[in-house]
Design a protein that fits this description.
alpha/beta
Length: 535
């Protein structure tokens, strides 16, 4: 019979921290330009092991470390590390080594009688100080060459880094950059005019014989968030177009059923229309409605929304948008040369930017709003990643995604000295913080942990960590050791920089993970009917 096992503090917390330590030891070797690699055998089959040097990929591949309670700590760190990767594109190894440096020292103090709750509070108060110091150090970068230098270490291809720098600079921090798989071995890119969305036609019956892409010139455009289930729902739009002499119509809706499609096909085949097409509206929920309203502004039309009590049956010719061209394939549709007013589009972009600033912890929604802003502005790019094998392509694609995320963060929020120098420069501010008791101890622990990324980077390069950290402290802010050149450099002049967002996200995640570990007193494994308590 299997038993539920309950492990209480201090043993439970110690197991959690051991698991975090095992995961950290896998990730810390990837920190820095002279990082080491980790070989991971496939779960099934006889394929050779993956040789990885990306902390985000390694964390994602791990499913456990052997002991069920240590697994909890390892998977906690894995989850938080992957969140860093998705949000900042880099900083996974930094977050891991910071977390481990904090929890190892804090566990010693707790074993001596310290209290976890005030320690967690002290860490959070010290964190606020460090974040403020980091923001004071930050400088804005704007030039494509600066962005390229920033991401070169991530993609490990100077030509690709240069191209990504140009793309990020051209599209801007709010524009959309889509990363897709290429058909061949070459990585290519293209800029898009107008609006393109990843939804295709509602039915292949709307294509003419031999067509794979429908192209409609100077069409009218009907927009609604209502499901078009009956033929009579689109009759008013057809009649309005016929009365106005408009012979091309595009319908955008979440769903267009066979009855409505059949009526459109009949009208086209009988010559009432030259071209008629229906495409599925992109996204869902609030973002679907927002996209349809965006397209209405772009095309100078009106979107019929159910929540506003609007009926698509009440449409008039003035409600239908217009564009120079609309194209629709099985998987995408695009609108070129919309007839919307520029002032209305600028106002819509401003509203979307305000909406973006109001979103706190929803990466999906933030990315969708950013994508909408780019499309409203007519700025978008697609990077199609190619490689010799699917495995190599997937790894490069992940690197490109990380590079784009980091570059956009740097262009928007600025950069700080790299090589661990920015964090080390925050130590005096933390030491000056006036706290007492367990809170003061926690602040001191964080101050010591801030030097850990520089220590690990030096260790991975085969250098003595304490010597490097001492040398950086002697030289002051902005100085770091270039492990590739083997010399002390001014980080700003040498271009050894990190996006501010990467550093702050790694630090915030580390403090959050440490707080969870320090205040977790009970671990429970394998829930079954019977219970066995292990002290």
């Amino acid at each position: 019979m299997a038993y539920r096992i309950i492990l209480r503090a201090p043993n439970g917390r110690a197991a959690l921290i051991r698991g975090m330590g095992k995961m950290t030891r896998l990730l810390r070797v990837t920190l820095g330009p002279l990082a080491h690699t980790v070989a991971i055998a496939p779960i099934i089959g006889q394929k050779p092991p993956e040789i990885l040097d990306s902390a985000g990929t390694i964390a994602r591949r791990m499913t456990g470390v052997g002991d069920p309670f240590e697994d909890m700590g390892a998977m906690l760190l894995r989850h938080l590390a992957w969140r860093v990767f998705e949000r900042a594109g880099d900083g996974v190894a930094t977050a891991a080594v910071l977390t481990q440096a904090i929890v190892e020292q804090a566990e010693i103090y707790l074993a001596a009688g310290g209290s976890p709750v005030p320690m967690k509070r002290g860490l959070e108060r010290a964190l606020d100080v460090v974040l403020a110091e980091l923001r004071r150090q930050a400088r804005v970068i704007e030039e494509p060459e600066e962005i390229a230098a920033l991401v070169a270490g991530t993609v490990r291809d100077d030509a690709l880094a240069a191209r990504l720098g140009s793309i990020v600079e051209a599209v801007g921090p709010d524009g959309s950059i889509q990363i897709e798989d290429a058909d061949g071995v070459e990585t290519t890119w293209e800029y898009l005019d107008g609006v393109r969305w990843n939804q295709g036609y509602a039915s292949h019956h709307l294509l003419r014989k031999g067509e794979t892409t429908a192209r409609l010139f100077n069409p009218r455009i009907l927009l609604t968030d209502q499901h078009l289930e009956r033929a009579d729902q689109i009759v008013p739009a057809l009649e309005a177009c016929a009365a106005a002499g408009e012979r091309n119509l595009v319908v955008l809706a979440p769903e267009i059923r066979d009855a409505a499609v059949g009526l459109m096909v009949v009208n086209r085949d009988r010559g009432a229309f030259d071209s008629i097409m229906a495409a599925r509206a992109p996204l869902f929920g609030a973002q679907l409605k927002a996209v349809l309203d965006d397209i209405a502004v772009i095309t100078g039309g009106r979107c019929f929304l159910e929540e506003r009590g609007e009926r698509v049956e009440d449409v008039m010719i003035v409600d239908l948008g217009r564009a120079r061209q609309v194209w629709v394939t099985q998987t995408n549709f695009g609108i070129l040369g919309g007839h919307g007013e520029k002032a209305a589009i600028r106002e819509r972009i401003g509203a979307a930017k305000r909406e973006l600033r109001a979103v706190d912890d929803d990466d999906w929604t933030r990315e969708r709003i950013r994508e909408r802003i780019g499309k409203l502005a007519g700025l978008a790019a697609i990077v199609k990643v190619g490689a010799a094998t699917p495995g190599e392509r997937d790894e490069l694609k992940m690197r490109v995604e990380a590079a784009v995320t980091s570059a956009r963060a740097a262009a928007q929020d600025g950069v700080v000295p790299g090589g661990g120098a920015a964090l080390l420069a925050c130590v005096p501010a933390v030491k000056a913080l006036e706290l007492s008791g367990d809170e003061a101890v926690a602040a001191k622990i964080l101050a010591r942990a801030l030097a850990e990324p520089m220590r690990v980077l030096a260790q991975n390069a085969g250098l003595e960590p304490s010597t490097i950290v001492a040398g950086a402290c002697e030289r002051g802010k902005g100085w770091t050791y270039d492990v590739v050149r083997g010399a002390w450099v001014d980080a700003w002049k040498a271009g050894i920089l990190d996006p501010l967002t990467v550093v702050t996200t790694a630090l915030e995640t580390a403090v959050s993970a440490a707080g969870i570990a320090l205040t977790s007193d009970v671990l429970i494994h394998d829930p079954k009917a019977s219970v066995q308590v292990q002290p």
